[in-house]
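Lecture 7 notes: from sequence to structure.
We start with the chain below.
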Amino acid sequence: MFFYKINDSIRNKIKIAELYTSKDPAREFMQGVFFDKEGKIVATDGRIMYVTNGIPEFPVCQIKVTKILLKILDIADYIEMGIKYANSKNKETNQEVRVAKYIIFNFKIGTSEFTYSCKLIEGKFPNWKAVIPEKQDFHVVPFDKKIWKDIYSASKKLQPRYDKNLYFTIEDSNHVTISNDDIVYATIEWSIEPDINKRNVLVFNADYLNILLTKSGELIDIGYTNFLRAFTFTYKDGSIAVAMPTQIKE
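Predicted structure tokens for the same chain:
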């Protein structure tokens, strides 16, 4: 078994990726953080997806990022992780094959050494590359993060739990109004153009948007073509996120 030291950058990326995993018990194949054969770290719940550079030589696997593991990533002074393999019978060939079964974390807190293990998530991870838009026709810089935090906080208090959508209406070339039904939260300065079909209203789930704007790193670009199709969020460290806006009837 080979172990790989986890530096602060990888720790942080795993913690960010966990925010993008599915919390739906029926979608176990999306509940983990995926380590791709090309060294990418990927996570998705089917509506938002996070892709970042990881460990090029690490074996392909999908790990469940539990509350315990998040705590370890936060407080450990040293962490290394590796894969534990076991023999399993191939259903098609009836032959024994060596398959990855557990993720193992060896870590230190001070001078004390500990081990944490968790069973890997089985099943095929979605074809994440097919989700990334090849190109976006429009690009815009994000608006002020502090303004967003105030709007998001207000929406959590004023909107019912079942309605998490926020409407962004382009008023002119420099102003956008953010609202929900009868509540207008703010008209902000933001130079965003209508989409390729001249739509001037886009709708996003506020919880998803909060992850994209405030919890995934330093956002430097938002790309889009159609307000009803996938947006691309690009971060300073080279990570990207892909997010689907809420579909609205026209």
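Points to note: The domain at 138-243 is CATH 3.10.150.10 (DNA Polymerase III; Chain A, domain 2). The two ends are 56 Å apart (CA to CA).
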